[in-house]
Design brief:
The protein is of the alpha/beta class and 345 residues long. The chain is 41% helix and 13% strand. The radius of gyration is 20 Å and the shape is globular.
């Protein structure tokens, strides 16, 4: 059993990483259905919350079926982060996460997200301010360091634990790496095996198959794994990993009917949560990933991203289900289709 404060998670929990423009309630719903143990909202600007920005406030929406669920915030000012923490607490999430990992310029170069890795004293002050502002368990998501010369995650882990965080998720790349190259889990393993560290340590980066999840679990000894990009269009990865850890065997790949059913649920939730126009428009980014591996699927995809009503989309999904009934998609390492990198995985 893994504990974050008073939150009890199963042995070796699988976490859904917070991803901007991805991990909204509709996406989280299908991941929860398929085995995600702990999920987070998209990251929310502390300044946006304080200004009462509509988009920021909307991201605070959480639902009981998602629990345990955390709300993630980011910012570079102690007072603003502390005030944002108080606002978040009112919405009653299970925990509050601070993003010190987002590498994109508009965040990092403004002294937030991974930008805070340049100033560890500031990171400690920001974290301390949040911990003191809320009764919620506070966790942190970050990277190995700013660049290869400052891979200081071991010091970061000790200092953040000392000011009261209850868990730490580490992405195995530096900020300057962005998402290039392989994630290096060596330092993640060192943090976990540091005798001074008593909080749960979750590893993140490049987990795209049950085999890799088990390999990294055994090699680095982490308390759990956080999965981001590999779950986009493939929420089944959580249950596949759990089954493989338990039995050493693979679950059958999702059928076409499974893919269509999850796609429909995602669409329905998107329309309900956002409104028909926004929900349908924002769902368009997901079809290519749900339908990856189907031959000659381009014509269907092109139709899906132009239709404007849920009924029309469901008709096309029916056509796809009939056309590809019985077709088996070969299980290969998960790879995103037509999808740009999303922060803060």
């Amino acid at each position: 059993m893994v504990k974050i404060g008073d939150i009890q998670l199963p042995d070796f929990p699988l976490l859904l990483a917070p991803m901007e423009d991805v991990s909204d309630p509709p996406f989280r719903a299908v991941c929860k259905d398929n085995g995600a143990d702990l999920m987070y909202t998209e990251f929310i600007s502390s300044e946006g919350l304080i200004r009462d920005a509509i988009k920021s406030r909307k991201k605070l929406d959480i639902f009981d079926y998602e629990r345990p669920v955390g709300i993630q915030i980011f910012g570079g000012d102690e007072e603003s982060l502390a005030l944002a923490a108080k606002i978040v607490e009112v919405t009653n999430p299970d925990l509050l996460d601070i993003n010190f990992g987002c590498p994109v310029k508009k965040v990092a170069l403004r002294g937030a997200g991974a930008g805070v890795l340049k100033d560890l004293d500031l990171m400690v002050r920001l974290t301390d301010a949040v911990v003191k502002a809320t009764k919620l368990p506070v966790t942190v998501k970050t990277r190995l360091g700013w660049d290869d010369k400052t891979r200081n995650i071991e010091e970061v882990a000790e200092r953040l634990q000392d000011v009261g965080i209850k868990a730490l998720a580490i992405h195995g790349r530096t900020r300057t790496q962005m998402y290039k190259g392989e994630a290096d889990w060596t330092l993640i393993g060192k943090v976990k095996n540091n005798p001074r560290i008593s909080i749960p340590i979750f590893g993140n980066g490049d987990i795209d198959s049950p085999e890799k999840a088990v390999e990294y679990k055994n090699r680095y000894g982490v308390d759990g794994i956080m999965i981001g990009r590999a779950a986009i269009g493939y929420p089944w990865i959580f249950n596949e990993i759990k089954h493989f850890i338990k039995t050493g065997e693979h679950l059958p790949s999702p059928t076409i009917a499974d893919r269509i059913a999850v796609c429909r649920k995602h669409l329905r939730r998107s329309v309900e949560w956002k409104n028909p126009v926004v929900g349908i428009n924002e769902m368009r980014r997901h079809y290519a990933n749900y339908l990856k591996g189907l031959p000659n699927i381009k014509e269907f995809r092109n139709r899906l991203v132009t239709l404007k009503t849920e009924e029309e989309i469901n008709e096309v999904l029916n056509e796809i289900a009939v056309t590809y009934a019985g077709f088996e998609i070969e299980k290969t390492p998960i790879e995103l289709v037509n999808y740009h990198e999303k922060c803060p995985v």
